[in-house]
Amino acid sequence: MTWNWVGMKDTGMSGQTSTTGASGFVSEDVLGTSLTPPSGGELQTALEEFIFSAQAKPGDRLPSERNLASLFSVSRQTLREVLRSMEGQGLIKVQPGRGSYIQDQSKTGPFRVVNAARQGLVTPADLIEARLMIECATAGLAAIRRTDEDLEVLRALCNDHMQPTTDPNESVLADVKFHERIAEASQNPVLLILFSSIKNLVFGTITRSLTDHTISNLGLPLHLKVVEAIEARDSEAAQEYMRQIMLIGQEKYGDDLHLPLAKVLRNQAQLDPLHRKLIDAAAEMVTETNSKNQEENEEM
Questions:
Q1: How much is the pLDDT for 241?
Q2: What is the pLDDT of residues 215-244, one digit of tens each?
Q3: For residue range 136-156, what is the model confidence (pLDDT) as tens digits?
Q4: Of all residues in the chain, what percent are helix, strand and coil, respectively (each to 5)?
Q5: Topology of the domain covering 10-102
Q6: Which residues have CB under 8 Å from 131's CB, separation 6+?
Q7: How far apart are CA 206 and CA 168, in angstroms?
Q8: With the CA atoms of 23, 28, 29 and 34 taken in that order, what torsion angle do they form, in degrees rounded to the nearest 10?
């Protein structure tokens, strides 16, 4: 499929025609009339926003250089430098005489979790595997190294913010903070960095779980067990209860387990109108553009 932006029509597989705008520089109202010409960095950001949006997918061809340069009011030289940079990062593949094609981030170069998340490639199964390695370790270390303040915060999160009667928005935020606080209590900066790098994805799976009463009813007692083990400085028990929390989703997600997380959330939003706003926000979070995280990921 060839994607066209403002002022250019896109006819997808559905046969419907739509127009798409490039964030920050053009709008549908002006139909391709350029505003302030962007810098090279701003242009790359705009192109990345489109690539990682729900309107694009691996294999799609970007508009021609001539159309892009005209659309953004930049020189062909500036555009080519940006496309060269994006190709170097594995975001696109430039084929002379044919155009620039969006690459599948799971198959080009090192697997970058930020890019994969943006393209919706991360599944709950992927995340559960990663969380088992990261969070069982943080729970075990937290039981050894936790402070009284850590314990007080964890208990408050469970008792005051993660009850069945708690507002779902508050529960999700508290649950994410619970896992983050355990990572902090581990006093291992590398584990905290690893958890922070998947925090938005964790937010997505926790939203999926807490809006499913079957899963949430199983999970809360185990969170309390984790806190009790950490209080008792029982590292093995803390790891085991954390492992059981992770495995609830593996056992209860059904077909959702191997679907892209963003799609899981969007499907859930359709099935759960009461929590649609919360779930839609989580879907956006797992696919949002985060330039800072991408830069850090590139440096690692």
A1: 97
A2: 888 988 999 999 999 999 999 999 999 999
A3: 999 999 999 999 999 999 999
A4: 65, 5, 30
A5: Arc Repressor Mutant, subunit A (1.10.10)
A6: 198, 202, 246
A7: 11
A8: 60
- Residue 241: CB partners within 8 Å, gap ≥ 6? 139, 222, 225, 226, 229
Cβ 25 vs Cβ 72: under 8 Å = yes
Give the chain's radius of gyration (CA, Å). Answer: 22
Tokens 């981030």 -> residue: 105
CA distance 284 to 10: 23
Tell me where in the chain the CATH 1.20.120.530 domain(s) lie: 116-293
SS3 6: coil
Residue 15 CA to residue 127 CA, distance in Å, equals 35
The CATH number given to 116-293 is 1.20.120.530
At position 183, the amino acid (one-letter code) is A
Residue 259: phi, psi to the nearest 5?
-95, 155
How far apart CA 89 and CA 38 sit, in angstroms, is 20
Structure tokens at 236: 């093995």
Q: Judging by beta carbons within 10 Å of its beta carbon (0-12, 13-18, 19+), is residue 47 exposed, middle or buried?
A: buried
